[in-house]
Design goal:
mainly alpha; 21 helices; Methane Monooxygenase Hydroxylase, Chain G, domain 1
């Protein structure tokens, strides 16, 4: 069969296929934005779209480096969004078909780990491990053992009903999803060397045009905000989507008919930094419905936690290629982890009473381990890693974790670049180093920096079998 000729009667041009004219013309000089004083913006009325950047005049030579590099970031972000969104959509379609609803939302901020001492009768393996550890090291060294909570007691309510036919289709979705997530990770990695190019600009060269950038900043990358929300970091941006207070003085929930839910404008009572950096102020209007959609729709976190929760049911676990991660399995797993953890903590310590500093470190680590093991999905992720073999689920979870890691790496590289250019100076949009450190700081709640904390924490508990 011969190919159908183009409607124009000539061969298709490469330029037409990739639409490079639109890309080249998009690299034009920007007309003076509304509200910017004329003396702060060069006259570009005579500049044709796509023409070479002018030399001399009010534009700084390095300004083209800064603008075009950030335009390149946005091109690659668009590809990453395309890949990751397709993965979530495929799993969500299966979920909706099976249950009539999308994957349930995961709100990790609402999962506060409260004191809930485990019941030895319901957790016999853990109770026996506590006695063995106490006998081995002495009760004065393991005083926090009495405060251990029930392992795996917190688990996502939504699971995916699986039969043989749907499980086969899910395997195909997970295999394809792992490939696309790997592509998304590679695409993010491509952008990291852009910072090496930007770093050829000196701090003095940046300061030559920095005032023209004010008050715009990286806060305004709508596509990066989309990516964070798509991964599941909704709670990270909750206050920027809905700057407090969320209620009127009369106690009613605030709404704004001119904005897509859940976006709100800041009020006079909104703290200054949030008012300055909220999405309504930092993102252009065309981005408002896009970030609202990302907030409202299913995320990678929802999909991953939902699949891990599905392993708590015998039928779901069997079709996913692992043993059921039920309460009994969580009890056995926590017992092994407890003994291994205490052995690690006491390796190299001298016999006898612990000094206060060492005791605090032992207690703190044990408390962190106990909090992580309270989440059934964390235990499930570790068991999938240990027993999942070369299953589609294991490959999918690892690919998802690596995309999460790629975003963390991107943030870290951005932070190092900013530190090298402006030090601890306040950012153009009000952020700067303090804000950027908060996006990767391990001292924050893990779910605010990692989209998939269960997959990362599970690595702590993987052991040889």
């Amino acid at each position: 069969m011969s190919a159908t000729p183009p409607p124009t009667g000539r061969e298709l041009l490469y330029s037409e296929y990739i639409n490079d004219r639109a890309l080249i013309e998009a690299l034009r000089l920007t007309p003076r934005p509304a509200g910017v004083a004329a003396e702060r913006w060069p006259d570009v009325s005579a500049h044709a779209p796509g023409a070479p950047w002018p030399t001399g005049g009010a534009w700084c030579h390095e300004e083209v480096l800064f603008i075009r590099t950030h335009q390149a970031f946005e091109v690659w972000f668009a590809l990453v969004l395309h890949e990751v969104e397709s993965v979530v959509a495929d799993v969500a379609a299966l979920w909706r078909e099976a249950t009539g609803t999308p994957p349930p939302r995961v709100e990790l901020g609402e999962r506060r780990v409260e004191a809930d001492a485990f019941d030895p009768k319901r957790s016999p393996a853990l109770a026996a491990a506590v006695e063995r550890v106490a006998a081995r090291y002495g009760r004065d060294r393991v005083r926090k053992l009495a405060e251990l909570s029930t392992p795996g007691r917190i688990v996502h309510a939504g699971t995916l009903p699986l039969d043989a036919e749907r499980a086969s289709r899910l395997d195909d979705v997970l295999r394809r999803g792992a490939e696309r997530l790997a592509r998304a990770k590679a695409a993010l990695a491509v952008t990291l060397p852009f910072y090496d190019v930007l770093a050829t600009m000196t701090p003095a060269q940046f300061l030559a045009f920095r005032d023209r950038l004010q008050p715009a900043s990286g806060f305004g990358s709508g596509q990066f905000r989309e990516l964070e929300l798509l991964l599941g970091l909704r709670e990270l941006h909750a206050d920027r989507l809905r700057p407090p207070p969320e209620r009127t003085p009369d106690g009613d929930d605030r709404t704004d008919p001119e904005l897509p839910a859940p976006l709100l404008r800041p009020t006079p009572e909104t703290p200054a930094f949030l008012a300055e950096t909220c999405f309504v102020r930092t993102l252009p209007p065309f981005m408002w419905p896009r970030v609202a959609r990302r907030f409202n729709e299913a995320s990678v976190r929802d999909v991953v936690y939902g699949l891990l929760a599905t392993t708590s049911e015998a039928e779901g676990a069997r079709h996913l290629g692992v043993g059921p991660v039920d309460a009994a399995a969580a009890d056995r797993f926590a017992a092994h982890v407890l003994e291994a953890t205490m052995d690690d903590l006491h390796r190299g310590l001298r016999p006898g009473p612990l000094d206060p500093g060492t005791r605090d470190r032992v207690d703190t680590h044990l408390r962190d381990v106990d909090a992580a093991l309270s989440h059934r999905e964390t235990i499930a992720a570790a068991l999938v890693e240990m027993h999942g073999g070369a299953t589609p689920l294991r490959a999918f979870l690892d690919a998802a974790r690596q995309v999460d890691g790629a975003v963390l790496q991107w943030r870290d590289r951005h932070l190092r670049f900013v530190e090298g250019i402006i030090g601890i100076r306040r950012g153009t949009g009000g952020g700067g180093m303090r804000y950027l450190r908060g996006t990767i700081d391990a001292q924050r709640e893990t779910f605010l920096t990692h989209a998939l904390p269960a997959l990362w924490q599970a690595r702590t508990f993987v052991h040889r079998v």
